[in-house]
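Hi L., both proteins are below.
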Amino acid sequence: MPLSTPFRSKRSSGVFHGDLMEQADLSISSEAEDDGSRQNDAPRRNGEYNDIQHNLLSDRTFLDIHGCISRLAHYHGIDCKLSGSVYVVSEIEGALPLIHGVRGCAFHQRLSPRKLYSPVYTIACTNLVEEDIIYGGEEKLRRGIYDAYNRSRPELIAVLPTCISGLMGEDVLSIIKDVKDDIPCDLVFVPSEGFAHRDHDSIDSIMQYVATSWKNTSQQFDFKGCGQVDMLAALAEQLMEEQDVIENSVNLESNGRYTYGFNLELQEVGRILGQMGVSINAVLPTTTVERIRQAPAARLNIARSRTDKWAAHMKDKFGTDHIKKWPHNSGIDGTARFLQDVGSRLGLDGEAEAVIDVEKKRAAEDLAKIRQTLSGHSFAILSQNLIFNPHRMKVYLNDLMLPIKYICIDSLVLNRLKVSQETRDMMMKNMYGIFDEMTPDFQVLIDPSAEELHKVSKEVNYILGEFITSPIHEKVSEIPVLDTSLLCNLLYRTSFSIIVELGSHLVQKINRPQIKDRRLIVSRLKYNSPYYPMLDDPRISSSISMWHGIWRATPSGGC
């Protein structure tokens, strides 16, 4: 059975209790030291970076290079349920993914779209071949489990079936039950077959849920077929055990930590919770196997990813209350409401209010000068992201108080996602409803042409552009476009200091001398809309169309 290099533990648990909270550094893994995302405690002196800038600089060093590639890889390449399951297992110290399938699956799943620059080197595989497919591979799985343990001595083996073993009808659960008493480590089974991944056409119902959740947070949505979701749920169902509850303690979900600004958000939330008298029981799943087993000791779970299925299961099985981070839990007011809600769930309303008031006052003081600088300019915003979360505009308008004249929305991304016209209309209606609540003094343009963008650019001082500024660069070179492709990830962070840092970044970009008459080679290329930054090449377009058709099993895809 092929197995990669011997198992090496690289992570610390990143979890803290009680009085240790004050000394805790919530950089959640020692692996983060390797990718440069650990906090630098030195204040900024003589041009050095403070802790916030240090984190964001290291995030930019790694995530800016791979961020766009990660999205494209997930859309057009590594888009399998198995990929999400492997990613979650790779976050757990002492855990080993065992892929029950052909070795090609194990090889390709080393590269997760969640962290392209940090491949999953330690993966075991049963290496099914043609003979196994004909006669069955259950005995090979049995031997594979023994061999995986003997080679690596993991604390947890996650058995992950693939499409081929799923189609063969392998009874994986029976094999696990047979060997469980013989293997001195935990075994977890997750249905991770690629064909069990949600159909891409389900994005339409997901978008309806997203648009509804902008205001209605009582509606729940089951992201069926997501590898990350099902892996987390499997840990809650098969690994966690009943514990004595630690008062005023929480579990924090860490899914998405390989995104710009995440470590900062986690550190700040942990620091503020500590000041409120709340301890961190576990950071899930980025912790040890034992700490995951003890997760039910927390009084409250804080879920922050696309679904809280794992937290809902803990509620049913252990009675652990949970709270979910919603699209509106960002910006100064949104962050304050979220932290106040956490305090209320734990019966710490007064403590939470006192701490939050101090944080808001500090943020207001830091933002005063930033707002003064930004108020002397006019702006237009080019965005794809606002159509998925219009609450981000509140950061620009209410927190930074930007004088915005135009918002240009690129909805062509919905074409690629195959969103129905009915859902689009609902998303647009709800988006305009959110904008109206802000009493806006700006004009909204949906899918403006290059000529319209050029006209808009002449009426403002700066354009804040996310991914889609190429048409402007191609049209004219002197337009001052401030690239916010990476900074836009800070708009939805639940953090006071990150909003201040976002404003500081914009001020720095404005004060930086602009290079006139710049014609970058990359701006001279012809791009494929709505698949920017893919090139407008018929071979690329045909490939995209073919793979989309195959995935959806449409006649045009040849299935």
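That was the first. Here is the second:
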Amino acid sequence: MLCRFFKLSVLALILFAPSSWADEPKKSDAPKKDAPVAATSGPAVLIRVQSINDLLKTADYVRTLAPEEAGEQIKQGIDAIKAFIDDKKGLEGIDVTKPIGAYITFKEDFGETPPIVILIPVADKDTVLKALEERLGLKVEKEKDGVFKTQADQIPFPIYFRFANDYAYVTINDSANIDAKSLPKPADILVGKPEHIISASVRIDRLPEALKKMAIAAVENNLAEAKEAPLPNAPKSLIEFKDKAIDELVMNLKNILEGGEEASLLLNVDPKKDEVAIELEMKGTKSSQLAKDIKSIRDNKSVVGGALAFPDTALSLNVSVSLAASLKKMLPKVVDDALEEAKKQGLIPGDIFDKAEPLIKALLPTVKAGNLDLGIAMIGPDKSDKFTLLAGVKVVDGKKIEEAVKETVKKELPPEIADLFKLDAEKLSDGSMMHTVKLADFIDEKTEKIVGKSDLHIVFRDDLMLVAIGPNAKEVLTKAVTSKPADVGVLQLKVSLARIVPIMGDNAAELSNAKKVAEKVFGKGGSKADEIRLSVDGGDSLKIKLLAKGKAIQFLVELGLSQKDN
């Protein structure tokens, strides 16, 4: 399972590698001769775990989020552990006030067994030795140079450890891993915030070059098979585009391994902020192309992200990504060739293509741009527990698309469909025309519970197309069409659980139960502590973060249990 997680994590980093979001590197971006040299010594893999005291505090916070019966069991466990803690000798000699950790320091001639060293804080080493012998039944032998040796029945390797810097340094198989001359100080490597339950980091700049080359070679071999895979009836430009995209993936991996400084995974629980978060973060070495690419993410504002920025949003999703500059150059011909091939194969009947040709031509500049900036928001609820849905997509020459849509509706659609459109239905305050599609009579029962009996409304801006449906569609569009681009990173998902309660149920009983649980957790007036957020962002580092407010977790747990009981 850990192996699968590692592979998925590496793949995610490769796919999200931000060279795809930045322009081609300029000549001035080339590494300078006097550029800082990346660190190559010291631990390459670091793991830090909260101190036992902090873990107990975290457990006590988790207890407040759990159902009453489970919370009482957690409390009993906490009290039981506290009963064994001595003010001076800690827990069986282990210092309960300092973090626990582990590290791996690679050499260029690394072997199959990772040279892992575990760091255990020690309050009283005599008590630790006594606990090993009397509690665990281990025979401990003292060897030269202050090293201790023992053997556990469950582990086929000898265990070595030594005491230094108020810690026990523990390793297996080779006592050279804890040589007294090469021991890092725990205070230097076990850095982190108290709310970090566990943090695991890889110093990419300290990985052996041989290991990096092995990783690149393995990826290149796998992707070589993808290059050789045939694309039946595909035009030459599409095959070249596919091969170039595979080359970009390999380049992204090389950028990570050659320009990456550190990749880390954090699990944070912050009782003060009432937050629980999982965060994956990657930094590039100073002056590297990777660091510049990550920083450039914050320079690319989202047109749709600005349009969806409403304070009373119950749910919103925004994605803003771009192809690599080299792929953007190839995309226009790929689109043209793919369209011609579709016509040849009859995938688009000739009469339909002829009718839709003005609209297709108007949309082509947007497709060929190689940018994807789109999103959707659910705004509300209003006093009737209904929502307004707003969707947007960044376009090129939006006014030309608008004219093509109007022409297609007037000239090519059957009368029974064209009659549903009310073009230029209303002029908004900024001068934009709002077009209406009369859908209210066609909305099914489930959709009506969300948006009511509402028509669909469309507005175009030269760089933006907006669609809204719901009781406040006009007001939402009036504000959205005058919005400015916003910084939303690559991906941003927000959910306000208290706001979406009105649609949490397929029947009256389920809805009533959801409202009851929400009132219990969030209170009658709702709560700002009801959010769940997922984001991918850049800047000083690339961050993939999933964050949930404590009360949001409590609500989901209690709602799930109540539904199970019912």
